[in-house]
Amino acid sequence: MTRRIYISGPMSDIPRLNWPLFNRTAVRLRNLRWEVVNPVEINNDPEAEWLDCIAADLAAMKGCTAICMLPGWEASYGARIERLTAEKLKLEIYDLADLIQEAA
After folding, report:
1. Distance in angstroms (rounded) separating the CA atoms of residues 24 and 36
2. Which of 5, 10, 37, 100 is the most exposed place for a label (fewest CB within 10 A)?
3. Which residue in 61, 62, 70, 64 sits closest to 28, CA to CA?
4. How far apart are CA 85 and CA 52, in angstroms?
5. How far are the Cα atoms of 3, 4, 19, 70 from residue 104, in angstroms, in the given order?
6. Consecutive sets of 10 residues in the chain, 104 residues long: mean pLDDT of each?
């Protein structure tokens, strides 16, 4: 089975919507042979409506086997919704630091 991981973390109220961290994480995970679902690649319009974005993100999670939680996710309403969805879908749940440490 393909290992497919969704990246989740804070965006709102963070400079450049935290996209640089999402994109760096996607590269790192792809180098670890994960198939990556990056919300920045799902919707790259910084002016998009939050509800439209979270709806598309949750739909994209359906095909995943895991979720990677970025630092600060606990303070993000959207990331908390994604984490709860991952739990409901019984995805493997990783913190970014744990994935990087496992690879070392």
Report:
1. 12
2. 100
3. 70
4. 16
5. 19, 20, 24, 18
6. 93 94 97 96 93 97 97 97 98 92 75
